Amino acid sequence: MKNKTITSLLPELFLICSIIYYWTLTSNLFNPIAIALLAIHMYQIFSKKMILGLLISTVVIILSLFMVLALVSELAKFSVVNQSYYNLLLFGSLYLGLTLLLAGLMFFKYLKLQMK
Prior knowledge:
Order of helices and strands: HHHHH
Largest sheet: none
Number of helices: 5
Number of strands: 0
Radius of gyration: 16 Å
Helix content: over 70%
């Protein structure tokens, strides 16, 4: 696979890795939500549909912004700033920031395809 192909698929691959990580955290091997999300993303990688790409990226951006509010709410519950607070702040911010960045890149990638 070419290097350019991998970088153009980076947002989709990141989302697939996130889905697989979510799936491993659940206690149920048959997780219909994870299976459906994985199937949708795999379909998107192979078909490269504009509308579906824009829809997926928009939903991921909205959900990530919601999760930023959840992160801020969870950080506000700490009465003492300790190592757990810093871990949550660091890893939560990195993950959500990377998710927002890659979803934005995915949005603009499919927006450019629509304008062609």
